[in-house]
Amino acid sequence: MILRFLNWQGIAGIGASLALAALLLVQRIETRHWRKQSASFEQLYRREQSAFAATVADYRSTAAKAAAADQANLRRVTALQNAITERTSHDFEARLAAARADALRLRGAAEADSGTRANSPVPGLSTAAGSFAEDPGKDRLPASDALTATEQAIQLDELIKWVRLQAKVDNNPSSVASPAGD
Q1: Where are the alpha helices (DSSP H) in 118-142?
Q2: For 86-110, how does the pLDDT look when each residue is reduced to its tens digit (9 = 90+)?
Q3: List of residues 6+ apart from 10 with CB closer than 8 A
Q4: Which helix (H) or strand (E) covers residue 93, if one does?
Q5: CA-CA distance, 162 to 182, in Å (whole number)?
Q6: Which is nearest to 164 in space by CA: 78, 94, 81, 76?
Q7: Closest CA to 107 of 140, 74, 139
Q8: Cα–Cα distance list, 38 to 24, 52, 105 (Å)
C-alpha cells in the first residue's frame, strides 16, 4: 500500500504538503514576530502620547503661572504709579497754595508799602553814576501775570518730576525695587 503512494503524484503531494507545512510554520513565526513588534510600537505610542499630554499640561501650568505673575506685576506697577501720581499731585497742590499765599502776602505788603513810600523821599542815582534812576518795577510783570507764570512754572516742574518718577518704575516682574523719589 505504501508503494501506491510512492508514485510521482504521491511524492509531489507529500512535497507540496511539506512545503505548505513549512510555509505555515514560517507564517506563524512571522505572525508572532509582528505581534511582538506591534505591541512594542503600541507601547511606544502610548509613552509618546503620555509625554505629549504631560508637555501640554506643563505648558498650560506655566502659562497660568505667567498670567498670574503678570497680573501681580500689573497690580504692583499700577500701585507704584498711582502712589507717584498722588504724591506729585499733593506736592503740586502744596506748592501752588504756597505760591498763591506768597503772592497774596506780597500784594498786601505792596499795597501797604505804596501808602508809606509816597510820603518818604527815595534818593535817585546821581548823574555822575552815568545813568538815570529807573523805576524798579518797570520791567516786572503785573502781579496777576506773575502769579500765572509762577503757577505754570510749578505745574511744569511737577510734571517733569512726575514723568521722571514714572520712567523709573520698573515694569519687569523679576525686580521689585521701587523708586525712592527725587
Answers
A1: none
A2: 999 999 999 999 999 988 888 887 7
A3: 4
A4: helix 8-117
A5: 10
A6: 81
A7: 140
A8: 20, 21, 99
